[in-house]
Amino acid sequence: MTSLRSAAYPLGNTDAEHERLIRQAKRVAPITERFFREAGIRRGQRVLDIGSGVGDLAMLVARLVGSSGEVVAIERDPRSIAKARARVSEAGLHNVSFIESDVD
Ligand SMILES: C[S@@+](CC[C@H](N)C(=O)[O-])C[C@H]1O[C@@H](n2cnc3c(N)ncnc32)[C@H](O)[C@@H]1O
To answer: Of 26, 102, 12, 35, whose CA–CA distance to 59 is shortest?
Structure first.
């Protein structure tokens, strides 16, 4: 029997899945941003993003909290983290850090 601890992420971490996540994030970004604003995410806050994938949500929140705030993003897949770091750098954001870890 496979324990939850060792279970693979059901949608996988392939290039195709990464591209799907990016398309999905773009499409719902206005809704996501409104949701976080209504939830009280503000400039200067520190936010933990668990299961950060290729970083879309982390980047959106990084812009909301601004340079006086910070996002710490945890992801267990090293390829996803490498892509996320490259995207954050390309976006010129300096307030996001990624930690490779399995939260289980
Ligand atoms: C829906 S995707 C990420 C979506 C991402 N937040 C975004 O902005 O597009 C979920 C991610 O959670 C990661 N994940 C699943 N279980 C995890 C665990 N136990 N610890 C760390 N990361 C995990 C997967 O590898 C996958 O990249």
So the answer is: 26
